[in-house]
Each structure stands twice: as C-alpha cells, then as structure tokens.
Specification:
alpha/beta; globular; 4 helices; 5-amino-6-(5-phosphoribosylamino)uracil reductase activity; Riboflavin_Biosynth_HTPR; Dihydrofolate Reductase, subunit A; 18% helix; single chain; RibDG_C; 10 strands; DHFR-like_dom_sf
Length: 181
C-alpha cells in the first residue's frame, strides 16, 4: 500500500541492537560527526512531524532540550499516563495509534519521524504503522540496554532499500516494512 506520508524510524543503535543503556544513557553515541552528520540534515528536510515516546521525550529534556527541533515541525508525545505541561511546540497524542496515524497521514505534509523509543516503535509496528527503518549501526557493543523494538513475539518482514558505510565504521541500513502475509 502506497502512503503519501511515511512514518520512518530514524535512529542509531549499538552493534548489539540497543538504542540506549538500561538507564536511558546514550553517552556511547558521542563521537566526532562526519560532514553531513550521517545524512541527518538531508533526512530532516524530508519530515515535518516527530513522534516521541514519553521516556524519549523526558530524556530529551534531561539532555537540555528546551523546545521543538525546528520551527514548523509538529511534535507529538505519546504516553499511557496523563501529560503535564509540555515544552513549547509539543502536543500530547491522546488517541489510539491507528486512528492517530491515519488522521496524520491524511493531512498534507512531509514524512513523519518516529523518534522512539522501543515501546512506541513496537506499538506502531504492531499496528502496521511503520513504513521504514533508517538505522545507523554504531560500531560499539554496550552489552545490555533498551532494544530498538520492545520485545514480544512478532515477525516483521523487511526489504533492504539501501546501505551506506562511513569511514568511522558506522553503517546505515534502510529497510522498508513489508506487508504481513
């Protein structure tokens, strides 16, 4: 099914598949960035909406985030519990995932960045609402932590769209999520 606005998980993981340490620490991501920051600037031009899980949003605040990444970008925070006051530019996502995603996709606009974390990625994946994974594998193993997708029994077929390697050992993998058979 062709969708006008794709929901894309654009994320970095350790070589052993974690997006953060168990306590949410992402210090292992700190590294000299090559020109173009692994394609982040180009990716950012393709989106106008960011979806955040509550824990990822709170980690962003802990790391110094004061508002949305950029003017004109809509930010939604998903949480099972009632949200307090959110940072400027952020809105609570209050409806179930399927109708929220359908409503968002029906609006004109660019693609949608699924920021994470693992729980919200898994929930959207289970509802068939993730179109692509754009994963930067960082050449470090952290041994334990928060997995890319919340663990549960699932089988999600993917099609490799592209790969790119960087001089520092980072590898970018871009996958399309295929329909379930």
């Amino acid at each position: 099914m062709k969708r006008n606005r794709k929901i894309i998980v654009y994320i970095a993981i350790s070589a052993d598949g974690y997006i953060a340490r168990a306590d949410g620490d992402v210090g292992w991501l700190d590294r000299p960035e090559p020109k173009g920051n692994y394609g982040m600037a180009a990716f950012f031009k393709t989106i106008d909406t960011i979806l955040w899980g509550r824990k990822t949003y709170e980690k962003g605040i802990e790391m110094g985030m004061k508002s949305s990444f950029a003017p004109g970008v809509k930010d939604y925070v998903f949480s099972r519990r009632r949200q307090g006051v959110l940072l400027p530019g952020f809105e609570p996502a209050t409806e179930p995932i399927k109708p929220f995603a359908e409503r968002l996709r029906a609006q004109p606009g660019k693609n949608i960045w699924m920021m994470g974390g693992g729980e919200i990625i898994g929930a959207f994946l289970d509802e068939g609402e993730i179109d692509e994974f754009s994963i930067h594998v960082i050449p470090v193993m952290i041994g334990d932590g928060i997995p890319l997708v919340q663990p549960r029994h699932r089988s999600v077929p993917l099609k490799l769209i592209s790969t790119r390697k960087f001089p520092d050992g980072v590898v970018h993998l871009n996958y399309r999520v295929l329909p379930k058979a």
